């Protein structure tokens, strides 16, 4: 069974990947967007994981 947080993280990651591909014409811009999405996901999920 997939926990809701993991499911949301997977959905968010997939959505981020689609956003990256949609702007892949500019490699630098897409790379920054992808890392920005991962950073936001990390900042959102870590406090939830540790129950803060």
Automatic annotation (TrEMBL):
UniProt protein name: Uncharacterized protein
Species for this entry: Neorhodopirellula pilleata
